[in-house]
Amino acid sequence: MDSQLFARALGNIGPEAVQRTELSRRLHAIQPTPEIEFDGRISRSTTVGRDQQSGHPGGSKDEIRAHRAGVNSIAIDRFEGRLLISGGAEASIKLWDLATAENTQHKFINRPTAVVEKSPSSHQYGINHLCFYPFDSLAFISSSYDHKVKVYSTEHLTPSATFDLDSVIYSHSLSPIADHLLVACATQHAAVRLVDLRSGANTHSLAGHQRAVLSVGWSPHEEYILASGGLDGTARLWDIRRSSNSLGVLDLNDSVGMLGEDGLGMNARDRHHGKAHTDTVNGVVWSDDGKYLVTAGHDERVRVWDMSTGANALCHFGPIIKNTHLSTLLPLLVPSNSLEPGKQVMFYPNQKEILMFDLFGGTLLKRLRLPGATAAPIRGSALRDNFRNRTTSLAWRAGDVGLYSAHSDGIIRVWLPVTPEDVAADKDMAQEANSDEDESRKRKRDALEEIFRDLTRQKITFT
Fold it and tell me: What is the Cα–Cα distance from 376 to 275, expressed in whole angstroms?
């Protein structure tokens, strides 16, 4: 870092290069931060639409959990990185203020600022997916097993719109760049459903999958391009402007791609046969520049695709990948502005751990094991998978190096960088605190000794 600062002082490199280098260094120093915990036990003053039969969300006094039946999804606003929303298997949604835990040197328990409990106006079954409105953190969208998509205001936590799709919704996506305000929904039916927030209608369906769709994602570069993955093992691309909609499928056996006239896919013919994975595809994620697509499947493989040609980039991440649960599983790609040029880092939510990979090289950079992983005391066979302590969702905090993870044991965990400079600073603060404490004890001891001497000098007379 000193060499970077020296080069910056000489004018050899710009401030952005220094910032990228520092952020990359802190990224590789990321560690679990058990001092910050999320406690979902709430008072009535923070509850919206509370169901009288829902009971107290906390367990025993020693348990600190964000949701008593497991956390299915979390999301952090992309502007200030201050607000976090979490959705639970018990149908509740909770809003957290991350700024309250900043600059804490000791254990800190974060409590929700507002909560939406199960009620006739809110979701009736477990939350499957949450995302903030891409242009404003004052609204977010939720989807659930109750077949409904809801739009909420973060200020009042009341639904402003509800869409009933008459099918289980596994995940949804809203374009970060488009003006069309179409929410793509991955549902139990073999079609991608589109919901128009502007008109309030279910516009149309994108048919092509043979079985249920589990994951969808809009391109961050082309506003009308959409990717989806489903139980049939295919990853499909769609252009919603076309009458046929489908652009084709990705083929795991194709490492060349559809080169087209210019070698980069221009006017290339569509491909409608082939599979991206040999089993279910339950994760579809775009890189933030739209050049690559990452898919995850039940064949326990993660594949990277060059989206200029649709070619399999042949990135291999080894046998460590685990993926068997029938739910959406989304790897997290670190924003490119936090990395050195040409680098891309992926966090993969493995069982009981989070894996950090070099996306293009497939190199395992770090293995983050969950601290104190336990199974929540949940009753009922429908929730027995929660005992496995799955990592269900990952979220990146904008403007900082900070990873947040949700788990089926009901805990939201925090992962922050700890550099040698941080360790040295903490040590100095601890020594300073101990010195102040010793000085305080010395003053008290001197005061007591003085009182004792005064008492012993006094002459006591018995009558």
Answer: 37
* pLDDT tens digit at each of 463 positions of the chain: 455 554 545 555 556 665 667 788 888 899 999 999 999 987 655 556 544 333 344 444 457 899 999 999 999 998 889 999 999 999 999 999 998 876 555 789 999 999 999 988 999 999 999 999 988 889 999 999 999 999 999 988 989 999 999 999 999 999 999 888 999 999 999 999 999 998 888 778 999 999 999 999 999 999 999 999 999 999 999 999 887 778 889 999 999 887 544 444 454 556 678 999 999 999 999 999 999 999 999 999 999 999 999 999 999 999 999 999 989 999 999 998 878 888 899 999 998 899 999 999 999 999 999 876 544 444 444 444 444 578 999 999 987 789 999 999 999 999 999 876 555 554 555 455 556 566 777 777 777 777 766 666 655 555 5
> DSSP per residue over 383-449, as a string?
GGGGGG--EEEEEE-TTS--EEEEETTS-EEEEEE--HHHHHHHHHHHHHHHHHHHHHHHHHHHHHH
Q: Is the pTM value of this prediction over 0.70?
A: yes
Cα–Cα distances (Å) from 38 to 43, 111, 226, 233, 431, in that order, read 15, 6, 34, 36, 29
- Burial state string for 283-306 with b = 16 or more CB within 10 A and e = fewer than 16: bbbbbeebebbbbbbbbbbbbbbb
